[in-house]
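Next comes a single protein record:
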Amino acid sequence: MCFFPEHIRMLLDEGHIVEVACNNETSSVPDYCREWNLKIHNIPFSRSPFSKDNLVAYRELKKLVTTEEYDIVHTHTPNASVCVRLACRKLRKNGLKVFYTAHGFHFYQGAPLKNWIIYYPLEKLCSRWTDVLITINHEDYEIAKSKMHAIHVEEIPGIGIDLSRFTDCRIDRNAVREEFGIKPEDKVLIYIAELNENKNQSSLIQMLAEFRKIRSDVKLMLVGKGDSEAVLKEQCEKFNVRDCVIFTGYRSDVPALLKASDVAVPSSIREGFGLNVIEAMACKIPVVAYDNRGHRTIIRNGENGFMVPMGNYKAMAEKVNLLLNDSQIAESISKTAFSELKKYTSENVIALMRKIYQLESEQGGFVK
């Protein structure tokens, strides 16, 4: 929910009334919701498709949308969106419009078979009760266009980034590095993500072990927290790289950490859209990423970044080493990437969303 303040602000500024439904117990309500006097409905959505909480959420949602008589319901996240579309399906006959932003289908090229068995039929069924299905990467867009039944399918370039947060700040690079005991001559690789199996930080630790064979000046900064932290620290000990890996925990100073680094190394297996890739590009540091649909949407291999085959940490080490050894290539990659960031800005994404809302309004959708 913290991803969408600009979207909400746009709707409020245009005179709409906005209410929010979420599970308050699993995600805290952002401050802006209170500042803007948004009405908050606590609905017990669960991330697990098998949780009985989703049945309760469906019943409460059905009561809510029937009572409040909304003009439009915009839903996010897979399991919650199944509940929402089931609850809204009959009300669409009365003019209710249902928008669904898919932040990355769980089924995709190379996904586990169980993902296709569980999520694909659900998404296809629920697409029958979807007026606008919005995707944030091109692979999902093509699947939605060819396989889903939504009335309209749209593609937008991510969720929007406040570029000024990364370009307007002045950072003392050396001071940031000193906080973590990083020497001026050290080379820092960074990945900002929750510590979990999908984000695949374990592969980066294996890559670091490869670097140990050829150079000793490389550090890996893992920014975030998560269930895999203990396992990852054990892996560091196993590969004898514990002194080279920095676990920062949760940090709010992402621009500073990026500008204190030399190469970003996103390693996720599944990614709907690589926001951390855009953030690195905004800080003018080159990116070497594993090839997945989210990264593929942003990176043109060899032009504005590098992509290597999924899980091939040796190939990633080679590209990282190339960037660390050749400042001209690194600078060229970074400049190209930075010059292309306008389409990913919040301003552009909000403008696209406004057009999508307006299209539905003109076609008899919602009223102010």
Remarks:
- The two ends are 23 Å apart (CA to CA).
